[in-house]
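In response to a reviewer's request, we include the raw inputs and outputs for one of the modeled complexes. The two entities were modeled together in a single run.
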Amino acid sequence: MKRNTIVLFVVLFILAAFGWAGWANWEYRRQAAERALASAAKGDLATSPSGDMPELMLPMMNKPAPAFTLEDLSGKQVSLASYKGKAVLINFWATWCAPCKIETPWLIDLRNQYASQGFEVLGISADDLDLNDKQKLSEEKQEIASTATQMHIPYPVLINADAISKPYGGLDELPTSFYVDRNGTVVAVQIGITSKDEIESNIRKALGAGK
Amino acid sequence: MHIRAIPAMAALALAALAAHAQFPLAAEQDHSVAKSNAVEYLYPEQVTVPAGKPSAVEMHFRVAHGLHINSHAPKDSYLIPTVLSVPDASGVHLENATYPPGADFTLPIDPDTKLSVYTGEFIIFTRIVAQRGNHLVEAKLRYQACDNNACMPPKTITVPIDVIGK
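The model returned the following structure tokens for the whole complex.
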């Protein structure tokens, strides 16, 4: 009799333990679903871009912006060095990038607003290019040019970001922007879309105008 | 320790193990890791189908938490659609793939623009025709993933599936 009671107790305990494990599973999934909903509803705007900055990009802060020479949409070679003395926003984007499409009109506005103070934007396309296939390369360039035209981009648009992705931290996410002051030093880095105000604040920093 | 306590201890350990499996370590959910592996193929790993006859196979995928990928039919032509393909010389022909409809999604910064995306788990319903024999197929899924603020470059992952045509 006593033995049966113990066995019954053990069986009940096992059932209770599995019941608890099942509840824990359900609760975890419920919390995960709630987190997903909250994330979708709220988003998480990059109000503090440096907080989300990949480690590869951290060493670039307050250092000279890596030099580059890339082709623009007309085939002309454009180098960062030729903008020395100006504040430059190096903006990596792509034709398939939805946040880039939202951000670009802000960049155009701000570029027009601050151009007279010695500010320029260099838009560098991160679209894949088939450099060994002339026909495909021509089509890809045409697509980038067509997007730039549709968006009325007034600043230089360069191609082949891939060629300089390594010194610029890998460019794993777009848009990515580097704010370079008049001396060629990176003063701010922004990963992902943020607010127009924050972009303007970084431009003013690059111009040496404070916040 | 009394010998009769062993089953109880074992049950407790088993339950703890089961619960731990449901609560992965924080490192496993690291967002940066998720971004580099935005989509994971879940199953099936192996299917057996009648040789030479069209057969339905449901392929299950999961998009990492906090990310979304464009559906097969994004609302704008500039967006890169999710597409499944099977290499020609694999012994298996992808006759047809039916993609789930995308869910409407808006970026917090632009609530007026609706995107058509997949999040969480999604299934692609395929009809395949396999030649007789065992084929280790390396199907490909091309997608382009984003979170609420940024997008990752388009990526193509290998979808390994062992197809047995009988």
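As requested, we also summarize the result in words. Chain B is about 15% helix and 50% strand. Confidence is low (pLDDT under 50) at residues 16-29 of chain B.
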